[in-house]
Amino acid sequence: MKTSPIEVQKALKGMDYPAKKKDLIEHAKKHKAGKDVMSVLEDLPDHEYSNAADVSREFAGK
């Protein structure tokens, strides 16, 4: 099953940016994100994201 960018953003609600990939994953875990969302975050490139739009751009097409 695939997830949507909306679900990913819901899991990252309240995230403080800039944030590294590991920070995104930790935040999503704390907010009980589903396994599909976690899979998307784990597949993101390992760099710093300036804002939620950066995460959405990387996620687009997956």
Write a short abstract of this structure.
55% of the residues lie in helices and 6% in strands.
Q: What layout of secondary structure does this protein have?
A:
Layout: H1 5-11, E1 19-20, H2 21-30, H3 35-43, E2 48-49, H4 52-59
Antiparallel strand pairs: 1-2
Helix pairs in contact: 2-3
Describe this structure in words.
With 62 residues, the protein is mainly alpha-helical. The protein has one domain (5-59). Helices cover 55% and strands 6% of the residues. It has a two-stranded antiparallel sheet with strand order 1-2. Helix 2 (21-30) packs antiparallel against helix 3. The mean pLDDT is 91. This is DUF2795 domain-containing protein.
Give the spatial strand order of the biggest sheet.
1-2
Instruction: Compute the CA-based radius of gyration.
Output: 10 Å
Order of helices and strands: HEHHEH
Low-confidence stretches: none
Q: Structural class of the secondary structure composition?
A: mainly alpha
State which percent range the strand residues make up.
5-15%
Sheet with the most strands, sense and barrel status: 2 strands, antiparallel
Question: How far apart lie the N and C ends?
Answer: 11 Å
| Helical segment count | 4
Which overall shape is indicated by the principal axes computed on the Cα atoms? globular
What is the tally of beta strands?
2
**What is the share of helical residues?**
40-55%
- Overall domain count: 1
InterPro entries: DUF2795 (IPR021527)
Protein name: DUF2795 domain-containing protein
Pfam family, one: DUF2795
Organism: Methanosarcina mazei Tuc01
